[in-house]
Amino acid sequence: ERGVRLAIEGVDSGQDPFAALMREIQRFTGRQKFSDDLTLCCLEMVDQAGLTALPEGAAPSTLAGPAQWKCVYEIRERTLGEFNPLPLLLHICMEVPGLRRKSGEIYTLLSELYNNALEHGVLELPSEWKFTPEGFGRYYSERATRLCTVSGHYIRFSFHHEPKPWGGRLKIVCEDSGQGFDFHNHAALQTTQMAQSGPRYAGRGLILLKRLAESIRFHNQGNRVDIVYDWYVFNPNKGVGHG
């Protein structure tokens, strides 16, 4: 933070602050080549008092677009190991303008649903491997190996969106061809057990789902999960803007 601040404070009038910052980054790193992209962004911070509350009536553009629709998307066989459907699924949901403000939460929901179905349902990878650093490495090594030999499996997403007076409701059903799990006794789905087990890599996805979704329900032998996600233009109880 100090280096960024000094680089920007040293910029003369008319100079590009991003260019100056990149020069400072190159100097600081010894001008080594990066193996990944560098992203720079500029954020303007304002006082809370300067923020404008949402209007009492929703602007037409806020609710324009597909309001009531259903969609089923299924990915099967070797395609499970060759194709990532998450960008496509997110794009479908983002056709609803009101959901675009929640793209991060929607992507998190889709990602956790898909990865749980793929890794634990289709590939049958045990969560316990991620309890230790050694097991964590083994988990992802075995994941790559099993993805190359996927056969006879599928993951199916069903979407249903409907408008509500306060915004809308997105229902997501994710079903896979795996053997499921004992969701009745899973620690991440039991509040008391979750508190006692302490922080672990395994099970955090289910905790995220519980926090983001209005409701989450498992069916069959645990290989089908129903998510309800509500988004708000207005708080249904108070009628004021809700982020």
From TrEMBL:
Residue span(s) of domain Histidine kinase/HSP90-like ATPase: 105-228
Stored Gene3D superfamilies: Histidine kinase-like ATPase, C-terminal domain
Pfam families: HATPase_c_2
CDD domains according to UniProt: HATPase_RsbW-like (cd16936)
InterPro entries on file: HATPase_C_sf, HATPase_dom
Protein name per the record: Histidine kinase/HSP90-like ATPase domain-containing protein
Annotated source species: marine sediment metagenome
